[in-house]
Design goal:
Layout lengths: L11 H8 L5 H5 L6 H14 L4 H25 L3 H8 L3 H34 L3 H22 L1 H25 L4 H6 L8 H14 L2 H15 L6 H35 L9 H12 L1 H34 L5 H18 L3 H27 L2 H4 L6 H27 L1
Helix pairs in contact: 3-10, 3-12, 4-10, 4-11, 4-12, 4-16, 5-14, 6-7, 6-14, 6-15, 6-16, 7-8, 7-14, 7-15, 8-12, 8-14, 10-18, 11-14, 11-16, 13-14, 14-15, 16-18
Amino acid sequence: MSTPPATPPTTRRARALRVVPLLGPALVAGVAYLDPGNVASNMTAGAQFGYLLVWVVVVGNLIAWLVQYLSAKLGIATGKSLTQILGERIRNKWLRRGFWVQAEIVAMATDLAEVIGGAIALNLLFGMPLLAGALIMGLLSLLMLSLRDRSGSQVFERMIIGLLLLIAVGFGMGLVVAPPDPSSVLGGLFPRFDGPESVLLAASILGATIMPHAIYAHSALTRDRFGLVQAGVQRGTILKATRVDVTIALVIAGSVNLAILLTAAVSLQGVAGTDSLEGVYNALGTQLGPVIAILFAVGLLASGLASTSVGAYAGADIMSGLTKLNVPLLWRRLITLIPAFIIMGLGIDPTWALIMSQVVLSFGIPFALIPLLIFTKDKKIVGEDSNRKATTVLAITAAGFVIALNLVLLWITFTS
């Protein structure tokens, strides 16, 4: 009796080869965790409190992993973005328009922070006036979005990933020159505060980490890449790849954010003038040398450019999903640049504008996070991929924590 030929075992290499082509959307969405608002929050936290808030960066990234995976899963399971589903389910046109207005304001606030951060970087590197820098940032992001329209989403993903690597180098080299004390880093993993200002900074770090436009964007990115995936092996493979994708993206984002905080803790703690990005640049030049300062500015420029392009993509999806208006992405981009140009033109302090943009983003967190949790646990919407009870409990706990800290941020901001 002849024996049938043995089926070759599935090797790790073969599984990896199936997964690698599916990576990308999370790395693009992950850029939202490395925007100029994150840089400002983490630098300030390290400069003022040293290693105290290391645990906040770690907790923020763990929560972000769960939130971004749920957003990606929603796009894969339904073939629709979060805003599309909201647009279909909010039947009252005035309620839907109201939801769109708040989401649009949040998108513009996001864009404001990113354009301002890039304009500051151009000013630091080339002495360029802030208004001119904002104009150049707008033009560069328009070029990137135009290339996406012509060449497709995967080319856009590669551009963003390239900028992500530049961000990592720009913000990570400070630790190579002046590494932190390992025992102090481990001590920073113990959750604690040191007065109300440390609570404010913790809320700022989390507020700049879990951002509404990243939630909207990720579901749209997976929709555009994968469409509606039928049940079976293909869907299972894509969901596994998505978990890997989100893990890689958040490990990179978390490591860079931690590097920013640790660089400030090692080299800038107690140094005067580090309450602005310009002050941080000057202090880094004094403490670590001009090369590190220049790399910081390059990282800030890449951060602004990458995140403003992703923000514009999210804003276009918000408009089409909630209003059914398919305004061309480039035209919509021009509209959302107007607030940044006005602020730069009026000479308003850019660091103050950056901080206030993060406050506006805090208002938008519940409007994105709560519907995401509701939809991903509903079998009528996501079918067999609905959340398990443990996932739902973790997600509700994480959402409650993030929303509570954002409320603390708003309360401290408006009462101080």
